[in-house]
Amino acid sequence: MPVARTSHVQLVQKLLRTFPVVAIIGPRQVGKTTLAAQVAAASRFKRVVRFDLESPVDLARLADPTGALEPLRGLVVLDEVQRLPDVFPLLRVLADRHARRRAFWCSAV
User: Fold this and answer.
1) Would you state the torsion angle of the CA atoms of residues 26, 22, 60, 46, taken in this order, to the nearest 10 degrees?
2) d(C-alpha 22, C-alpha 3), whole Å
3) Which of 1-10, 17-26, 78-87 is least confident?
4) What whole-number distance in Å separates Cα of residue 40 and Cα of residue 20?
5) CATH for the stretch 6-108
6) What is the pTM of this model?
């Protein structure tokens, strides 16, 4: 059973209300993915879309990052985002457009 990190979830929610892109960086197996799931479950966004970039299926979904990410609304979770470094300039562009409609949570090692 995952550890409830209520204060961390609340902090991330506050950051997502303030900033369109929030990233957490840390070593493997410290709970980044679990925290992302807890944040998504408590999200103010009605829709949550998750990409696990260690999954070949999710990497394929992002073969065209602009086409995949631009139409999304809600919370977009990019887990292990370091596996797709070319997405960072796109996130800046998307964050500048319609920042209230979506937010990006990125985790990386």
Assistant:
1) 130
2) 21
3) 1-10
4) 15
5) 3.40.50.300
6) 0.88
